[in-house]
Amino acid sequence: MEVYKDPSQPIEERVEDLLKRMTLDEKIGQMRQYSSFTKEIKDLVRKGLVGSLLNVTGIDKVNEVQKAAIEGSRLGIPLLLGLDVIHGYRTIFPIPLALASTWDPSVVRRAARIAAKEASSEGITWTFAPMVDIARDPRWGRIAEGAGEDPYLGSIMAWAAVRGFQGDNLSDPDAILACAKHYIAYGGAEGGRDYNTVDISDRTLREVYLPPFRAAVLAGVGTIMSAFNDLNGVPASANEYTLRKILREELGFKGFVVSDWNAIGELINHGIAGDVYGAAKEAVEAGVDMDMQGDVYRRALRKLVEDGAISEKLIDDAVRRILEVKFKLGLFENPYANPERARKVVKCKEHLDFALEAARKSIVLLKNEGVLPLRKDLKTIAVIGPLANDRTAPLGSWYCLGDPKDVVTVLEGIRSKVPPQTKVLYAKGCDVEGDSKEGFEEAISIAKQSDVAILVVGERGDMSGEAASRAYLDLPGVQEDLVKAVYETGVPVVVVLMNGRPLSVKWIAEHVPAIIEAWFLGIQMGHAVADVLFGDYNPGGKLPVTFPRTVGHVPIYYNHKNTGRPPDPKNKYTSKYIDEDYRPLFPFGHGLSYTTFSYTGLEVKPKEVEPGDIVLISFTLTNTGEREGDEVAQLYIRKPVASVTRPVKELKGFIRVTLKPGEKRKVTFKLPTEQLAFYNSEMKLVIEAGAYHVMIGSSSQDIRLTSEFRISKTKEISLRTLKFTEAIIK
Ligand code: BGC
Q1: What ranges do the domains of the chain cover?
Q2: Which residues have CB under 6 Å of ligand 1?
Q3: Which superfamily is assigned to 597-716 in CATH?
Q4: What pLDDT, in 10s, does the model give residues 437-447?
Q5: CB within 8 A of 715, min separation 6: which ones?
Q6: Residues carrying an active site annotation
Q7: Nearest-atom index, ligand 1, CA of 182
Q8: What's the gap in Å between 202 CA and the centre of ligand 1?
C-alpha cells in the first residue's frame, strides 16, 4: 500500500508521499474549488484537477462526486465538499446575531455541533462558518451573520462555534471543518456598503477586528477565508501583512486559506493586478491556498511557474496545507455520506427541541411597561403585521437546506399556546416594503375588538446578509405607520421585531409599552416568541450590538474612546449632536426580564497584581423578583490613564445565570491579566502597569458596582497567549 493511503502512517509522511507523486497540474488542481457539478467539472474531477466543490448537496450527488474523485482519478484524492452551514443545516437555528444575544457560548457550540452532525451525515465536510467579523455599522447587512460589535463577546462565540463544528477531534465522522471568515476587517466597509473599501488603523485592525480570528485560530480552526475588501490599500486576498505576518507568523495558524468567491479574480477590479497572472501571483504569494470559484489559479499558476515568475515551492506549500487538512479530517478513510446516520440525526427530535431552546434564549426584551407577560385567558388577541405569518423570514438570510415548511410562524405559535376559547384574530396590515395602506383598516378593526394587539414587524430575511446593506435603519415601508395606527386605537400594543440588524425604531421605543427583539429565530420561532409573550419562558437575552436612534449615529458602539470633550449636556462645545440625543436607543448588553436582580458586595482581590496573575472579582447576584429568570452579569474594565487612549469600557467577562425567586449566588470572575493587554504607542502588545477600573453591570450602561485594582509593572506578551475570563458560580 502507498504510504499516503495507509492510515497508520503519520500525517506528515502521508502528505509528503502524496505530494511527490503529484504532477504540477494535479497540485494546482488541489488549489481549485468550483460551485457546481456539471459534466465539465466531473471530467476535471476524474482527472484529479479539482480539490474542492461547494454547494453540491444531497446524499446521491455527494457520493457521486466523491466516487468520481476517489475511483475515477489517478491518485484518488477525495474532495472537500463545502457549504455555508451557517446557523443550522436542515434544522435551522436562530441567526448568528441572535445566537450571540444568548450570551451563552454553550448554545452556540451545541447549535454548531448539531449542524455538523446533520451536514456530515449527508457528506458535507466543510462549512464556511463561523463568520467572526466585528460589525459596528448596522447598515452592513452581514451584521446578521456575526456576533455583533464586541471583540470579547465575538471571540468567545468564535471559539464556541469552531469547537462545535469541529467537535473533539476533526477525524470523528460527525466533525466538519470550520472556516473563520472573512479575514479581515470586512465589517469595516465604508458607509456600511457591502464589499466596500476598508481604511482603518493598525490598532483598530488588531484590537477590534483581529481578536475573534485569534480565538478561532487558537480553538484550532482548520481554514480561514480571505475577504473581498481592500484594507488600507491592499486587498485582503493579496495581503502578505495580514495573511503571512499576522495570521501565520504571529498567530501560528497552520491550516489553509481559501479565498472568498472569486476574490482572487477581483484583484483585477481592485486595480492591483492587470490580468489573471498578476492576480494569481499576488494571491499565492500572500498565502491564499485555494481559489474559490474564480478559476484564476487554473488559468495562471502553471504558466507563472514555467516562466519562473513564482517558485513551485509556493504551490507545494499551499498543497501541503490543503492535503494535511484532508488527512486530518479523515477524508481518505471516510469520504462518503452515511444515509443511515442521516436518517437518524437530520431534524431528529433532539435537534428540534434544541432549536426551540436556542430560540427562546436568543430573545431580548427591550422594553416592558407592565404589559408582558400576557395572560393566556384573554378573550381576544389581535396578531398584526407582515411578518406575523411569514414562514421564510424566520430562517434568516443563509438558511442552508432549511425548509420554510418546517417553520412555526409567530401566529401559529400564539394560536397553539392559548386555550380554545381565546379568539386569535389576524391581519397582515401591509407588506414589509411598499406604500400601500390598504390593509390598515382591517388591522385597526381587529385591534379594536381585542384585549391586546401583537404587531410583528421588521425586515424580510433577505434584507440582511450578503449584499443587503441598507441606507436607512427605520422599519421599511409603512410598517411604522401601521404600528402608529394600531397604537392610536388605545388597545395595549406589543411590538415583536423580526430583523437581522439593529433598527432605529425611535418612535416605537418612545411610545409602545412592550418591545421584544426576536431577530430571525429559525424553525421554532413562533413557539419561542409565544413562550415569551405568555410568560412560559422568561426572556434573558442581551443585545450584542448597540441600537442607534437614527442612521446618523452610525458607527456607534459602547467601547468608544472618551475624547477630549466627552458629552456634557450643559456644555455646547462637547462631543454631541445639535439635532438628536447622542446616546443609543438601546445600549450594548441591554435586555430586560420579567423578574429583577440585585448586585451586591463587590470584592476585588488582590488589589495589586503582576502581569500573568489573575484578578478575582466577586459579587452576589440575587433574584429580587417573583419569577425564575436569567441574568447576564457583565464585567467591564477601563484603564483611565494609559500610554495610548483607551475605550471608556471594555467587556472582559460575562455569565448567564438562572436564579429562582429570592435565590442568591456568589459569582466570581477570574480575570487573567492577559485579557487586559493592548497595543502601546510602539504597537507592542503589552499588559500595562497602572490602575484599572472594574464595573459590574446588567448592561454596558446599567453599571451596578464599581471598584479598581492595579497592575504593578508592564509586560509584553505574544498574540498566541489567549486566556478567557472564567466565571465560577457558588
Ligand atoms: C460569501 C461567503 C460565502 C461564499 C460561498 C460569498 O459570496 O461572501 O461568506 O461563504 O460566498 O457561498
Answers
A1: 355-553, 597-716
A2: 54, 84, 128, 181, 260-261, 466
A3: Immunoglobulins (2.60.40.10)
A4: 999 999 999 99
A5: 610, 611, 612, 686, 687
A6: 260
A7: 9
A8: 26
